[in-house]
Write a structure and sequence with these properties.
The protein has 2 helices and 6 strands; from the N terminus they run E-H-E-E-E-E-H-E. The chain is α+β, with helices and mostly antiparallel strands.
Length: about 120
């Protein structure tokens, strides 16, 4: 069941972290799923905010992990970009997260979905 309505759809912010080498593929996937579209007469699409330089993620893969980067048991740091975009409607947010998980190289994707208020 979608939480959006025709007159005032519920909006969500999707944020995620990704290695720069995989940035464009992940953005293409979420945009194809409907993320980054603003309602209204402007018909804006593929809208996002990206921070490319300066972000570093870290993780230590557990014994049963199959890491894309790094080795089991060893602390790994990696440069990552952060992407933020709008999803209009819960169905779009869920589709964008599913597309992100398919396109992203990590075994465990770091992402957040925030329900937005319209004032």
């Amino acid at each position: 069941m979608s939480s959006s309505t025709t007159s005032n759809p519920t909006k969500y912010q999707l944020s995620f972290y990704v290695p720069p080498a995989n940035l464009e593929a992940c953005k293409a996937a979420i945009f194809a799923a409907g993320a980054g579209r603003y309602p209204g007469s402007g018909n804006y699409t593929e809208v996002c905010y990206t921070i490319v330089q300066g972000g570093v993620g870290q993780f230590r893969p557990g014994k049963d992990a199959n890491p894309h980067i790094g080795s089991v048991g060893e602390l790994e740091t990696v440069e990552e970009a952060r992407v933020e975009t709008l999803c209009v409607g819960e169905d779009v947010a869920r589709a964008a997260v599913a597309a992100l998980k398919e396109a992203h190289p990590y075994e465990e994707v770091a992402y957040q979905v925030f329900k937005m208020e319209d004032f």
